[in-house]
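Reply to dn_fold:

You asked what the input looked like. This is it:
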Amino acid sequence: MSGKNTDKLITNISNKLDTLIRISALNLVNNITLQREKISILDEAGFTPKQIAEIVGTSNASVSQTLYTIKKERAAKEGKEPSKEVISKPASGDEKKEVTI
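and this is what came back:
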């Protein structure tokens, strides 16, 4: 198999795995009642804040704020210096905006 065909095959498999991860995450959050946990799981599965907001039925700003808080708490729990941690800052737009605090 040539390098080009191998790369294409790996990309195809990776895309299929991403789809399976997202489907699994969607199924998992159906059984979870806490919105914060749903947001965290969907974020880890690769959904954008806008997509998460649509899934859980809230605003993009609310999802972004929740993700910001979760990542800030994780950094503190892991004993990392917040000034060195890059985290998603709540954004009013659809994209994640990352800042170093």
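Confidence is low (pLDDT under 50) at residues 83-87, 94-101.
Hope that clears it up.
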